[in-house]
Give the backbone structure.
Amino acid sequence: MVWSAVAAVALLGVAAADAQQAQTPRKGGTIRFTSPYAASFGSLDLHTTARATDEIVGKALNRTLYNWDSAHNKLVLELATSVNSSPDGLVHTYKLRDDAYFHNGRKMTADDVIWSFNRIMDGKKAYPGARYVRVIKGAVEYEKGDAKEIAGLKKIDDFTLEVTVTDRVEPGYYFFDGTTAILPKEEVEKPNFASNPVGLGPFKFKEHIPGSRVVVERFDKFYKPGKPYADRLVFVIMAEAAARDVAFRNKEIDTSILGPAQYVAYRADPQLSKGIL
């Protein structure tokens, strides 16, 4: 799944780090990633795109109600600290984090979750995340223009949100995908948001050079103490496997995504095989 790709160095990847370094995170520095799926980045507004290239960057910039814990292979709450579910499994009451800040310095509240889900369900836009948000009661009616709001979203207070779904499902599977990221209305409504994004992630946007790279920097108000470790991430467009191979071997990038032929070659290399994830 692309949304958990950055944490795992994207799908099947290799990292320039030995076992000791991997077990002992160090503060500071720049990590250079590759983005191999297209010749350029598209939109950095994750509500509007499901492209893998955009989502890899989006993981650094944004957060969703749930996240995927790759270390334990399970869904976990991300923008909430707890959830209580009704006996019938249809009503879920979330206690949202009260320490999650957007990169513009404003604290996230239940209004932001409601606004984001309403935006995703705009029937005139056909946003990719709508396939997930449709599980909320009233979302389809809102999408069709038959309702002025999504009935299944209820703000109890600034940090308590009640979500009613249409089926007895695990909501985490619907609300962890990057296309359901929680965004700030006041920033999204600016004309250049897709190229100058603001989110809740551990890194904030720095620059985008079309056809070349996106650079993000550590966000000091991120809600997880001590994280992120890196000062900066650089996502370099590099669609050709041969170019990625040369760049990685020459230490021009710190991670790479391997195709089948590269995987076989790296697996056979005593040194490179240590970094395969």
